[in-house]
Write a structure and sequence with these properties.
about 400 residues; alpha/beta; Aspartate Aminotransferase, domain 2; Aspartate Aminotransferase, domain 1; 7-stranded mixed beta sheet; 3-stranded antiparallel beta sheet; 13 helices; binds pyridoxal-5'-phosphate
Length: about 400
């Protein structure tokens, strides 16, 4: 990475690290966090290392991924040894679902409205291992308090549940889930809690150790500005021994990659698989993505996740009322602990023309599950808000 690029620090409300970004107001980090010039430089540096050194760049690449693990562990307040680097959130959850020690008749509890990443792998695992998947409505968690949601969860747990799968933040309306209370309840009834943290890591402080969750997964390319093709799986240390090694590859063995070159002997196939969670790092990884991700994590860490949360909440505070005045219904949680960096609205107007018009005005948003979703991050400036509101006014009049 060139000194000049690497030395430009991240600053709230400052887009100078994103010179290529087209949209005037980019409010779509819940879909893709565009790579900054620092991320692009890190990817290029990794590519150049392979171009100039070939195989000799491989070991530094492994060391680079270990650095990602350490930095990610700091962000999540876990021990790096409890993390596996994965190609995506979906791959992480799929591998977890495959390796979980299912017993026939197990019940898995998920939630209606979750992103497919946190439903499909559980459904496939249920079909493959003689378990069943039940989806609960999320409505009880949306009130002024989460008590109704927790009571519904407890009712289901009483009927016997092996694992509860929930997103830390719901992808469509941004509802932040009460993970600590859910983990406590799950454990009280002998269930385990698996969390899809994709929409939280990088914008919401997450201390996985304190929250007490059993498993968590996430990815690089949204709130951490990394390239896609990089993610993680966290497994609480006391859950590790229970997992069944149903997924493994050449890099899963003990002592990689030295076992490939035993002193003078042939390749050995009897080297045991590692029992640390990094056994799931099964083969070649997307090294360029991990190089970019490190640069993205650095930017987030420079600013601080609690400060990012405060900043995105202030952005929401400043824009929400103006959208409501235009007739949009805000789905922001009345309970501040239920808020995330995603702010969604229900419109009376059909969404597709509104989306198109906003796009033409240079306002990038998404429309998941019939909602208009704004997802600002630290590079968004409060100064852009009047323009965004004017663009919505034009879009709904059209
Ligand atoms: C909650 C959630 N989980 C997972 C994903 C996808 O993750 P990945 O592409 O890393 O598999 C998304 C993408 O929108 C998401 O919103």
């Amino acid at each position: 990475m060139s000194e000049s690029t690497s030395s430009v620090r991240a600053r709230f409300g400052d887009r100078s690290l994103f010179p290529l970004l087209g949209a005037r107001s980019y409010l779509n980090h819940a879909a893709v966090g565009p790579p900054s010039s620092r991320v692009c430089a890190a990817v290029r540096a990794q590519q150049d290392a392979f171009a100039s050194q070939g195989a000799a760049a491989w070991m530094p690449g492994m060391a680079q991924r270990e650095r990602v693990k350490v930095k990610l562990a700091q962000l999540l307040s876990v021990d790096p040894k409890d993390l596996a680097l994965m190609p995506s959130t979906t791959r992480a959850i799929s591998d977890l679902a495959r390796c979980f020690p299912w017993r026939p008749g197990d019940r898995i509890l998920g939630f209606e409205g979750e992103f497919l990443t946190n439903v499909t792998p559980w459904r496939v695992a249920a079909e493959g291992f003689g378990a069943s998947l039940v989806l609960l409505p999320l409505g009880g968690f949306r009130g002024p308090s989460v008590e109704a949601g927790l009571a519904e969860l407890e009712r289901e747990l009483r009927r016997g549940v092996r694992l509860v799968a929930v997103s830390a933040v719901q992808f469509s309306d941004g509802l932040a889930m009460p993970l600590a209370a859910m983990a406590r309840l799950c454990h009280q009834y002998g269930a385990e809690l698996a969390v899809d943290a994709m929409q939280a890591v990088g914008n919401l402080p997450l201390n996985l150790t304190e929250l007490g969750v059993d498993y968590a997964a996430g990815g690089s390319h949204k709130w951490m500005f990394g390239p896609d093709g990089a993610g993680f799986l966290y497994v609480r240390p006391d859950r590790l021994a229970g997992l069944v090694q149903r997924v493994a590859g050449w890099l899963s063995h003990e002592g990689p990659p030295g076992f490939l070159f035993p002193d003078g002997g042939p390749v050995r196939y009897d080297v045991p698989l590692r029992r640390s969670i990094d056994w799931l790092e099964v083969g070649a990884a997307h090294g360029l993505a991990f190089a970019g991700w490190e640069a993205g994590i650095d930017m987030v860490a420079e600013l601080g996740v609690p400060q990012i949360r405060a900043y995105t909440q202030e952005y929401h505070d400043r824009i929400e009322g103006a959208f409501v005045e235009l007739g949009a219904q805000s789905l922001r949680s009345p309970d501040p602990t239920g808020r995330s960096a995603i702010l969604s609205f229900r419109l009376k107007q059909p969404l597709t023309p509104v989306f198109r018009s906003l796009n033409e005005s240079g306002v990038a948003v998404s429309t998941p599950a019939g909602l208009l979703r704004l997802s600002p991050h630290w590079p968004n400036s409060f100064d852009e808000i009047p323009e965004v509101v004017a663009a919505l006014a034009r879009a709904i009049e059209a």
